[in-house]
Amino acid sequence: MATISTADFKNGIGLRIKDKVCTLVEFQHVKPGKGGAFVRYKTKDIKTGRVVEQTCNAGSKFESVQLFTKEMQYLYNDGADYIFMDNETYEQVSVPADFVGDNSKWLRENDTCQLLYAEDELMGVNPPMFIIAEVTETVPGAKGDTVQGAYKPATIDTGAVVQVPMYLNEGESIKIDTRTGEFVSRA
């Protein structure tokens, strides 16, 4: 068990706090005029995505966790699990569907994804940052539907529903930001 002091804090490092693996989002060393120095910091729980702000005394020790990502190719869904393949060793990894969660709506076969590990434990599955998808279902756009800021729901080929501009029709390819689920541009 490696420990790290508040003096060694860097944004993005992995910490284990109360048996939860977190990343350090930001921190600030505070030296008030009266009393001892302390550290104000924000951590993000990797599994839930919840951000918590806390304080501790300067020089406090925390358990350090090594975080790393591995690029893997999404192969298929067998109904219960999502199957990924390591591009270097060709080893296949099975990930339960409930673990992939909402990110499953952005996964397409043969896409390269990033699997986040904390030491040897799988912590999360991140789809590609941007995907190109085809609009499979939406209400038809009428002539003159070019007003800025007007959006309508559209179903894409992965099954996800995104908000697209009024002028787009079925069969068109669009670029989507998977972090926010927003339309970026035509493809």
Fold and architecture overview:
The chain has 187 residues and is mainly beta. The chain contains 1 helix and 16 strands. The radius of gyration is 22 Å and the shape is flat. The N and C termini lie far apart (48 Å). The model has no long low-confidence stretch (mean pLDDT 86).
**Average of per-residue pLDDT values:** 86
What is the straight-line distance between the termini?
48 Å
Helix-strand pattern, N to C?
EEEEEEEEEHEEEEEEE
Overall form: flat
Oligomer: single chain
Q: Sheet with the most strands?
A: 6 strands, antiparallel
- How are the strands ordered across the major sheet? 1-6-2-3-4-5
Low-pLDDT sequence parts? none
* Percentage of residues in helical conformation: under 10%
Provide the structure class. Answer: mainly beta
Count of extended strands: 16
**What proportion of the residues form beta strands (DSSP E)?**
over 45%
Rg on CA atoms, Å: 22 Å
Number of helices: 1
Keywords:
single chain, 187 residues, mainly beta, 6-stranded antiparallel sheet, 5-stranded antiparallel sheet, 1 helix, 16 strands, 55% strand, flat
Question: Can I get a quick summary?
Answer:
Helices cover 2% and strands 55% of the residues. The protein is an all-beta fold. Strand 13 (151-156) and strand 14 form a beta hairpin.
